[in-house]
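in:
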């Protein structure tokens, strides 16, 4: 072959490759537009003063049963259940009204990275993105609800004012340290002009509890003191009621920041004393309905649950998910931000008991729902991206508990692969095409 012929052949080959690349990009953009259009939902914005109460008919009855084969022939109904855990296809805003009120909310939604259809391209759009969800959480949360808010440091800082203004009280910021292996020396610090980032945050919030009394809105601390004074009793008698020297006046009835939540037995003692020795005309005291006083058990439900195992701190050193727990489409990870089941179990164990309700409004691969199923909680998850929904359903349907040394269980069967789990359905419902489109979204935006 002459040099001229070689040059012409090479030029033709280059043109063909460029043409194929343009066709791929064009198809990708069409697929991206389709996904973005199909994932749009009408938001349910919970406004101030609206009442969202559940009746027994509205709460779906969950019966513990063996898992059934998921059917994606029409993606309707938009829910898959395994025992006490449910995964809904669509925007969580469309389902909050149907779910039982939560003891725990695991939020792992938009990070402001443009990583999925609807995710804002920067953190500047996060407040508007989360606002309708935060309003719904505030309306439907129990006094005992704990919110675990996962995000980047900047993403959390952007949304924090929205959460506090909606009545969520900051408790602690937990740092997920993924370790140096997370970057594997691939951070170009000369270009980034900063140290490599190997962390995310999981921030704990609790629902503020307020009481209405005589037309006034009071905190728990204010309401407790108000009811005792309303009974016409001197404050020093709170010590007599609790059988202590001065702990009641010093801890339970102080007006400063050193206030302590009275334990149930102390609250019971205060209620009995006030209703026995207080003004007869004002009885019952420490009552919310004006008919009967609160019990110690009811009082204990007025704040979020929390249990801390010995040795657990607010820095969680846990590698990014790898091995059989990491869901992959051939060589590529299915989800760019899959959370370790170990950390999600930690959150659930710390803030809930068996039988409590867990919400996972931004399901992704629904790892929190798997953790809830293992820990015998009731879970309600939602995922709006059809490809992720199908994988999450198959994952919940097929997962097995495998004992591993030092880790207890791994909530994933050996050799789990998203293509094998979905099986023949992937061809019919474009799972492979949908995942490939999501990968191309990331490539085009990077």
């Amino acid at each position: 072959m002459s040099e001229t012929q070689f040059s012409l052949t090479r030029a033709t080959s280059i043109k063909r490759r460029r043409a194929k690349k343009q066709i791929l990009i064009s198809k990708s953009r069409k697929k991206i537009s389709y996904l973005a259009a199909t994932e749009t939902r009408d938001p349910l914005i919970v406004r101030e003063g609206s009442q969202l109460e559940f009746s027994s008919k509205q709460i779906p009855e969950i019966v513990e049963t063996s898992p059934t084969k998921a059917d994606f022939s029409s993606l309707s109904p938009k829910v898959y259940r395994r025992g006490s855990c449910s995964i809904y296809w669509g925007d969580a805003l469309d389902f909050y009204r149907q779910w039982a009120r939560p003891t725990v909310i695991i939020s792992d939604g938009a990070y402001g990275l443009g990583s999925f259809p609807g995710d804002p391209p920067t953190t500047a759009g996060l407040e508007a993105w989360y606002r309708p969800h935060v309003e719904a959480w505030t309306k439907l949360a129990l006094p005992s609800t704990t919110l675990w808010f996962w995000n980047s440091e900047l993403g959390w800082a952007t949304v924090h004012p929205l959460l506090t203004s909606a009545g969520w009280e900051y408790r602690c910021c937990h740092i997920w340290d993924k370790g140096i292996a997370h970057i594997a020396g691939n951070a170009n610090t000369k270009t980034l002009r900063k140290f490599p980032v190997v962390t995310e945050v999981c921030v704990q919030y609790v629902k503020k509890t307020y009481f209405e009394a005589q037309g006034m809105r009071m905190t728990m601390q204010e309401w407790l003191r108000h009811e005792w004074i309303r009974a016409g009793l001197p404050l020093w008698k709170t010590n007599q009621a609790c059988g202590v020297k001065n702990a009641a006046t010093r801890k339970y009835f102080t007006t400063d920041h050193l206030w302590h939540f009275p334990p149930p037995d102390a609250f019971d003692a205060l209620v009995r004393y006030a209703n026995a020795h207080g003004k007869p005309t004002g009885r019952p005291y420490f009552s919310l309905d004006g008919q009967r006083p609160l019990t110690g058990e009811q009082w204990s439900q007025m704040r979020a649950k929390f249990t801390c195992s010995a040795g657990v701190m607010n820095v969680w050193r846990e590698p990014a998910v790898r091995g059989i727990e990491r869901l992959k489409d051939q060589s590529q990870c299915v989800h760019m931000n899959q959370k370790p089941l170990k950390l999600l179990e930690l959150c659930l164990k710390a803030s809930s008991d068996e039988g409590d309700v867990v919400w996972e409004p931004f399901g992704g691969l629904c790892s929190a729902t798997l953790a809830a199923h293992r820990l015998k909680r009731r879970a309600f998850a939602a995922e709006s991206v059809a490809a992720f929904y199908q994988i999450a359903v198959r994952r919940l349907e097929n997962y097995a508990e495998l004992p591993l040394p030092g880790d207890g269980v791994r909530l994933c069967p050996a050799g789990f692969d998203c293509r094998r789990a979905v099986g023949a359905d992937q061809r019919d419902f474009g799972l492979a095409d949908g995942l490939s489109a999501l990968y191309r979204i990331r490539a085009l935006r990077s």
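note: The two ends are 41 Å apart (CA to CA).
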